[in-house]
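Response to reviewer comment R2.3. The reviewers asked that we include at least one raw input/output pair. We reproduce the pair for Aminomethyltransferase here without editing.
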Amino acid sequence: MAEDQQDPTQDKTTPLHDEHVALGASLTGFGGWLMPLRYTSDLAEHRAVRDAAGLFDLSHMGEIHLEGPQSGAALDAALVGNASAIGVGRARYSMICADDGAVLDDLIVYRLADEHFLVVANAGNAPRVAAELVARSAAHDTVVTDRSAETALVAVQGPQAEEIVASLTAADDVETVRTMKYYASAPATVAGVAVLVARTGYTGEDGFELFVPADRAVGLWRALLAAGEPRGLVPAGLSARDSLRLEAGMPLYGHELDETTTPYEAGLGRVVKLDKTGADGEALPFVGRDALAARAQSAPARVLVGLRGEGRRPARAGYDVVQRGLDGAVGAVVGHVTSGAPSPTLGYPVAMAYVTPEVSAEGSELAVDVRGRAEPFVVVPLPFYKRA
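Raw output as returned:
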């Protein structure tokens, strides 16, 4: 859930910007925001998250609230998922699509109370998502409020995440944090700050995301750094976040997902609920339903697959996937890479790519055109990495 790099001279800054500068972070434009790319090295930050913990600033993400008696019904009509079926205190991955079924953004929807939902959108897409939710919920008794500017978001990810967050949590809330299920949330006091704690993340590790008022973000960030340092926590930037999510096979908006893609091409058809019904039991229409229903019945023109490199040269986004030829020759193009990098955890290159169905089976031997040479790759299941 993120966007490509952009011109940093036009970017907004998060409430933690001065903290990143003080820590010596390299900064880059990303989704309209000036964000830390790395603090020390990509490899060190990646390994810290896998072995101990990393601290991320995610304050560029959008937080859009829907409140009112028909908030769930409004989201059912606006998104591909069945938001009204989410239990209070739980969350669900979803998408907002156009009339033709194309993905406008992928989202996480939290149900905070019976009549209160929080939709978290990718940074560059957040204004559009907020506007679409306002328009799509006009016929429902709900109020849509974009609270992105007043909300900061920090994430603690890694095997030590629970211990770090629990060590700063008020005594009355510690058990809530420790017993929290994956894709669940609850209010809690952490480092003396009232926050919403969610057990979600984008790294393939256990971890928490903490929604905090923007004016309290610096204190929380500093407290988490101090509490986490003895346990191996380090601040981590976008570069490590990208390599971590790639190993975990998680899609990135602008790469695996965009307005030329439906959820089905991306292997995410499970999030589309074509059989939603309203309170009266009648079939519930939602934006993009007809196109997605037709797409669900048709053969795909392309399939998203995982690729494991058999050499050492990595594939990168935009490279052609080709038939494997003899002696390093580049064969016919059968797809393109959407994300690719060396895997610090696994020790070989990994990539995600869209390819034609005929070559999408596990074990298919393909190649990627890396500067004119066909580097060997093989199709493997996603994700590449699963935590123990």
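Residues 185 and 315 are 37 Å apart (CA to CA). Confidence is low (pLDDT under 50) at residues 1-8. Further pairs are available on request from the corresponding author.
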